[in-house]
Amino acid sequence: MPNLISKPNPISKFFLGLIGKAWAHDSRQELTKELHKHADRMNDETWAKYIAGAGRLDSALAFQPGLVTEHINIHDSLLYVRALMCAALDKGYPQLGEELARADDALAAAMQHLADAADATIPAAKTPTASR
């Protein structure tokens, strides 16, 4: 059934949310516009906050809590993407499943990079030097 309304109003979004549904765009142009709108808003709202917070980090070890938090957040996203991938493949959407598999790979790689960065925050062990 085609979508009869071009954009949901806040009340429609609220009621859709109550029944576990969300608005989906049926054109690439609208989807792209929506993705960019949220990305632009997030950049405007969060960059200054993040850069100010990162500027206060005073040692490599101070980076670790944020890296661990981001690792956890990305792991949650990875699990969600994997669930979507399984559902897409089970329901007969192979192209969608393939795209989600690529997203899975990218998220797994991001997790590894964050783990490596967190590891780099641990101070190097001091090795004893021999004295003569």
Architecture overview:
The chain is built from four helices and no strands. The chain is mainly α and about 130 residues long. The protein has a domain at about 60-120. The relative contact order is 0.08.
Q: What percent of residues are in strands?
A: under 5%
Total helical elements: 4
Query: What is the radius of gyration computed over CA atoms, rounded to a whole number of angstroms?
Result: 22 Å
Spans of at least 5 consecutive residues whose pLDDT stays below 50 are: 1-5
- The termini sit apart by 85 Å
- Overall outline: extended
The succession of helices and strands, N to C, reads HHHH
Structural class determined from secondary elements: mainly alpha
Helix content: 55-70%
Strand tally is 0
Mean pLDDT: 85
- Report the sheet with the most strands, covering strand number, pairing sense and barrel closure: none
Topology overview:
Blueprint: H1 10-18, H2 28-55, H3 64-90, H4 94-119
Helix pairs in contact: 3-4
Summarize the structure.
This protein has 132 residues and is mainly α.
Keywords:
single chain; 132 residues; mainly alpha; 4 helices; extended; disordered N terminus
